[in-house]
Amino acid sequence: MAEKRENIGIVTLPEYSHTDPEFVVSGLCELGNSFFDQIGVPHRHDFYTIYWIKKGKLLHTIDAVTHEVKKNTLFFVAPGQVHNLQATEKIDGYMIAFRDAFMCLKDQTQVSGINSGLFFNNQFSSVIHINDEQEKDIDAIVRLMMKELTLREPEYEMALHGLLRYFLVLASRIKGENVAISPEQHAVHNSSIFLKFKNLIEEKYQELKTVSDYAGLLHIKPVLLNEISKQLSGITAGEHIRNRVILEAQRYLYNTDLTAKEIAYKLGFDDPHYFSRFFKKYTNQSPSEFKEASRTSVGPSA
């Protein structure tokens, strides 16, 4: 009998790093066993990852959604997401990886929203296909990054920062998202509150489940937190909290052999039956129905 999977492994950036512990750019083949040992194994990263699959075919599962991928596809995976690469033929390409401190992607008062469009969105990820002309620009940026990392000349970190910023801007344009800041988003105070709220969810979603809980930590009224959330994201604070809990439940259902009861306790529910009702109310599937359906489904082709 196969061993029961109860946890989702975490890969740290130093496992991939040969030179700089904060920033990695490498061909996939050059990553060696540190990359290929993870093929077929659901895991999380504690860093931001961009994959560029140049050749080959694979299935890439990100948080229970499986994408069928062909050549020239970009993937953007945020820290904490559960993903699994399954190659169906020999693949080649690049990986760009960096810690949050390198770019401060969560600081949306500094960066104009391109980041929320690539790493933080309703789908919790981005999968982008690039054409031959766009490939030339992406290739030029990646080669310059690798050159800076190899030569490490004065202020190379500043150069890498600029190249990464340009890469993200270019990817945002390709994705076709509007990266302009709306007038409301210029309200730095509200943006700061919303950012703190989202970070608090990441820290406390297992123990805190209500808007009032988070509003109290932010020292504002629940109605104001809902207004700010609606203004900056289009959905209420309560929906953000529920979505995060449901996402984690889906991750465990898809990637482990834990029962719904075990997952309920992991996510801070005292009553497993209430958890099952909660999950079905917001997904229209019971936990067991989701597990069965997700393992036989494939997302849209890239």
Automatic annotation (TrEMBL):
TM stretches of this protein: none
Superkingdom in the source lineage: Bacteria
An annotated Gene Ontology molecular function: sequence-specific DNA binding
Pfam families named in the record: AraC_binding (PF02311), HTH_18 (PF12833)
PROSITE patterns: HTH_ARAC_FAMILY_2 (PS01124)
Domain HTH araC/xylS-type positions: 195-293
Keywords: DNA-binding, Transcription, Transcription regulation
Listed PANTHER family: ARAC-FAMILY TRANSCRIPTIONAL REGULATOR (PTHR43280), TRANSCRIPTIONAL REGULATORY PROTEIN (PTHR43280:SF32)
Protein name: AraC-type DNA-binding protein
Organism: Chitinophaga arvensicola
